């Protein structure tokens, strides 16, 4: 971790400008082209054609007097996941699959539900209208049983069709918040300005539809918890560190929050930092933003931001700042299992400084919430900790 001051006149923004220049140089080398290239989203006609092909296969099976089945990639196995430092976790091209059969008592209900939701998606795309996952659930809540069933089927369909979920015209209800130096126009023409300081703006439900994004921000801070996000707002962090942007997914991030972080990175290529608790759960959340999750690995190119850096709270910061032991929390058995699981993941190999921090946590058998810093002073996080971290390159 580069933690030495960069000269007496060094400012936070000079440090961030140097970091941004380094990120852009790395990006150009890895891409072999100017930064900002995205994979092309499928057109509505292509999505409709994909669904029609699936239905045609079903009709063909019935014509042969065979029981139709859906073939779906297995999204819950690490054997189907590969890791690339420039993308994150993604599905291998030839992965294992599972059959959802119409003649099997175990899967006939799921087969029917997939068929029903496919028909709803077809109508949405055809009419150029949108629905939320919640809308779909409430079309027949008794039939679906639970929102989780609907969510999993939509992800399975997205994976089966190789179409990003937003191109299926299905939206998620956003839970994330954004504040700071950013303005944009939503798909319906609503102008949004996030610069008002004391209040945050809800992350839009249709990230693909927002346009005219404008910012002068020098960095984007992704905050794990809503409580910490609100505290930084109360401390006027966005104004004091202006220009910057701050986002929270309120814990495990929803799809829209991840899409927005990705869109801001693709559009502006400003440094992106995470502020999470020094515990396995916080590290897991940071990994989702940076490298993605196993269940959504089929859409990694649209969701991950490998350029993200871990700003805090680092386990090594606990000792460096003499955080009192009574402010720390012992690791539970579940915490230790989660930490062991993360340490075995493929991306830890290319992050030796992350491994070192996690080993510090494992050895101490203690974790700490960001709020533990308040033992120094109530505004230590916003006035001292974060500004010094940003100024002196205290990220990994």
Key structural traits:
single chain; 396 residues; alpha/beta; 6-stranded mixed β-sheet; 3-stranded antiparallel β-sheet; 43% helix; globular
**Sequence stretches where pLDDT stays below 50 over 5 or more residues:** 1-10, 32-38
Spatial strand arrangement across the major sheet = 10-7-13-12-14-15
Largest sheet: 6 strands, mixed
Shape: globular
CA-based gyration radius? 23 Å
Distance between the termini: 6 Å
The overall pLDDT, averaged over residues, is: 87
Classify the secondary structure makeup into a structural class: alpha/beta
Helix content bin: 40-55%
Q: What proportion of the residues form beta strands (DSSP E)?
A: 5-15%
Q: Using DSSP, what is the number of strands?
A: 17
Number of helices: 15
Structure description:
There is one protein chain. The protein has helices at residues 12-31, 44-63, 108-127, 133-139, 141-144, 147-161, 226-234, 237-240, 255-268, 280-291, 300-303, 315-320, 333-343, 352-364, 380-391, and strands spanning 69-73, 81-84, 88-91, 97-101, 131-132, 170-171, 177-180, 183-185, 191-193, 201-202, 211-214, 220-223, 245-248, 272-275, 309-312, 329-330, 366-367. It is an alpha/beta fold and 396 residues long. The chain has 15 helices and 17 strands. A hairpin with a 5-residue loop joins strand 8 and strand 9 (191-193). The longest helix is centred in the first third of the chain and has 20 residues, at 12-31. Helix 3 packs across helix 6 (147-161). It starts with 11 loop residues before the first helix and ends in a 5-residue tail after the last helix. It is 43% helix and 15% strand. The chain has a 6-stranded mixed β-sheet, sandwiched between helices. A 3-stranded antiparallel β-sheet has the order 9-8-11, with no helix packed on it. Strands 1-4 form a two-stranded antiparallel ribbon.
């Amino acid at each position: 971790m580069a933690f030495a001051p960069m000269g007496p006149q060094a400012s936070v923004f000079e440090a961030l400008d140097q970091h941004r220049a380094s990120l852009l140089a790395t990006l150009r080398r890895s891409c072999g082209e100017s930064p900002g290239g995205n994979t092309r989203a499928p057109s509505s006609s292509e999505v409709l054609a994909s669904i029609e092909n699936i239905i045609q296969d079903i009709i063909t099976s019935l014509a042969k007097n065979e029981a139709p089945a859906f073939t779906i990639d297995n999204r819950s196995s690490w054997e189907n996941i590969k890791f690339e430092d420039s993308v994150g976790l993604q599905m291998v091209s030839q992965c294992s699959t599972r059959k959802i059969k119409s003649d099997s008592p175990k899967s006939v209900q799921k087969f029917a539900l997939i068929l029903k939701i496919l028909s709803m998606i077809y109508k949405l795309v055809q009419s150029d209208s949108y629905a939320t996952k919640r809308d779909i659930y409430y079309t027949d809540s008794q039939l679906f049983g639970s929102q989780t069933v609907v969510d999993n089927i939509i992800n399975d369909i997205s994976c089966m069709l190789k179409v990003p979920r937003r191109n299926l015209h299905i939206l998620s209800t956003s839970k994330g918040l954004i504040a700071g130096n950013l303005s944009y126009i939503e798909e319906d023409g609503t102008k949004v300005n996030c610069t008002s300081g004391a209040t945050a703006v809800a992350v839009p439900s249709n990230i693909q539809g927002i346009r005219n994004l404008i910012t002068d921000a020098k960095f984007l801070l992704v905050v794990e918890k809503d409580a910490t996000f609100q505290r930084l707002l109360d401390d006027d962090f966005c104004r004091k560190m202006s220009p910057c942007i701050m986002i929270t997914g309120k814990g495990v991030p929803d799809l829209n929050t991840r899409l927005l972080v990705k869109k801001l990175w693709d559009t502006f290529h400003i440094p992106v930092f995470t502020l999470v608790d020094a515990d396995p759960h916080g590290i897991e959340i940071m990994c989702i933003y940076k490298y993605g999750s196993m269940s959504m690995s089929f859409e990694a190119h649209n969701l991950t931001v490998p350029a993200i850096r871990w700003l805090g709270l680092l386990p090594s910061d606990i000792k460096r700042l003499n955080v009192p032991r009574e402010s720390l929390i012992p690791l539970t058995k579940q915490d230790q299992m989660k930490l062991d699981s993360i340490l075995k993941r493929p991306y830890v190999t290319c992050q030796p400084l992350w491994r070192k921090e996690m080993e510090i946590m494992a050895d101490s058998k203690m974790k700490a919430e960001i709020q533990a810093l308040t033992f120094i002073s109530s505004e230590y996080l916003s006035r001292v900790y974060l500004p010094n971290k940003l100024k002196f390159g205290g990220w990994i």
